[in-house]
Amino acid sequence: MPAKGQHRKPRSLNRLTRVCIAAGTGGAALALPLVSVAHASAAEPAKAPAASAKAHQYTVVRGDTLAKIATAHHVKGGWKALYNANKKVIGTNPSLIRPGQHLTLNTAVAKAAPAPAKKAAPAAAKKTVSASGYSKPVGDAAIGTPYHAEGSNWSSGYHTGVDFLVWSGTPVHSVAAGTVVHAGADGSYGNDVIIRHADGKYTLYGHLTNPVVSAGQTVASGQEIGISGATGNVTGPHLHFEVRTTPDYGSDIDPVAYLAAHGVTV
Ligand SMILES: [Zn+2]
Q1: Radius of gyration of the chain from Cα atoms?
Q2: 141 plus 228 within the same structural domain
Q3: Which of 81, 148, 189, 264 is deepest in the core (most CB within 10 A)?
Q4: Do the beta carbons of residue 169 and residue 228 sit within 8 Å?
Q5: Cα(160) to centroid of ligand 1, in Å?
Q6: 65 and 175 fall within a common domain
């Protein structure tokens, strides 16, 4: 299997990847920037004009690599510079970083940020439930990478969901009533929530800062299920929204068409 397409690999493959990274293979870390950069070019709006370098603190989370962090936060000089600036914390092996470590990031540009989602009142989003009981996953937000965008960076060759450009911290809502089948860490998807609906379809909400529901919980259409973020394999905050016919990766269908069929236009 191609060692790429982090964003889109089945969970089982992600686990394998994680094991490789944990084992400290330099190759795994080196391979990541290509993936992330490619995703970024498609997923993100134009970057803000270069701003003066700024130092930020970052806390390593599970699944991170220096390359991933460097790409996600636009670290000047990439992962090597990030490593050099944090050798005291990281130690002699740049491919071994641990959750909880505090790194100093020298960002070269202002954080590439999605079009600002109007601080849409969550209440407003809840009111937009369609006649068929469906609603938007986030308030008014532009779409970044569309469904089926092609790219060799994805193992299946295309984007399995649609990306909504929202800042971290934006409330994310279930598009319909259903039962939470997963809430938490999910490889390249970061923290995600997967919900099974009455029609047998599943919706997935990826890269969340954190879910606010747990597996087994019943949710209503428009109910807040998590807070958007930039966890997993991303280069900037956004909501990856996916619709599946089974709980498994690869059974995706067009999420925009799915919502439209239920009276919701995004
Ligand atoms: Zn996506």
Answers
A1: 18
A2: yes
A3: 189
A4: yes
A5: 7
A6: no
What's the gap in Å between 186 CA and the centre of ligand 1?
14
Using an 8 Å Cβ cutoff, are 192 and 182 in contact? yes
CA 40 to ligand 1 centroid distance, Å:
10
The CA-CA-CA angle for residues 101, 107, 109, to 5°, reads 155
Q: Are residues 133 and 104 in the same domain?
A: no
Three-state DSSP at 154 gives coil
Distance from Cα 143 to the centre of ligand 1, integer Å:
10
Statement to judge: residues 172 and 256 lie in one domain = yes
Indicate the number of domains in the chain.
2
Give pLDDT tens digits along the chain (266 positions): 444 444 544 444 333 333 222 233 333 333 333 333 334 333 344 444 444 556 777 777 777 777 787 777 677 777 778 778 868 888 777 777 777 777 778 765 444 555 555 554 444 444 578 888 999 999 999 999 999 998 765 667 789 999 999 999 999 999 999 999 999 999 999 999 999 999 999 999 999 999 999 999 999 999 999 999 999 999 899 999 999 999 999 999 999 999 999 999 99
**Best CA proximity match to 211, nearest among 188, 236, 186, 178:** 186
Cα 108 to ligand 1 centre (Å): 24
How far away, in angstroms, is 89 Cα from ligand 1 center? Answer: 32
54 shares its domain with 75: yes
